[in-house]
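Pipeline run #58 for the internal structure catalog. This entry was flagged by the ingest filter as a single-chain record with no existing model, so it goes straight to prediction. Upstream metadata was stripped on purpose; only the residue string is passed forward. Reviewer on rotation: M.T. Logging verbosity set to normal.
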Amino acid sequence: MQNNFLKHLIKFFLIQSAFFKPIFCSNSVANKQKNIYVDIGTHAFVKPTLRMALEQQGFSVIEQRIFSDIEKPYLFVSFEVRKENLAVFQAHQDKKPILILFEPPSVVPDNFDKALHEPFYKVYTWRDDLVDNKKYFKFFYYPMQKMIKPLKFIKKKLCVLVNAHKTSSHPAELYSERKKVIDFYEAEHPTEFDLYGRGWDGYSMYKGFGRRILTQDF
């Protein structure tokens, strides 16, 4: 049953605009009193869709950053590696804990320490070098979404970037490359580039945080 959940969860995650659509059982009554423990981490955007989808199937969703007071667990889902929870996953191997790795090692170094993956039944990652289709499976980050308000070609600009301004000392970081791209367009093509996200104040191309980016003209 849990394996079917994984297949449906990831398939919907990859292909469709919503993030989760688990299909456990056609009769949601059978899922009552089954607790799914979820560590969302920093991915708050997942929370409402995940909770709604699971509760529609009759499950109880318990969100915790540090798992404690575990009662009648049916499944564990963790976004990113959190060392504080590994002992809980190890103690509940029969529940086949799931790990979903969003962040790169420049953000969460523990994510790609394979020794820390041992308690997990399945690990979903964007890193091709880990994928073996046995324990490690590929997911694509993010799924494609249709534009809410299509624009005529003549009204479109050349490029848009939606990212926060971040830095990292990790040798594989790409945040500095992000800034190089922005600096290039600021100097060479400022009217053909729109910039959204936190921390870019001062650039002439900056359009704000971008909460409504899908509903307005670029």
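catalog note: The first strand starts at residue 35 and ends at 39.
catalog note: The beta strands are 35-39, 60-63, 73-79, 98-100, 122-125, 136-138, 159-162, 193-196.
status: ready for reviewer M.T.
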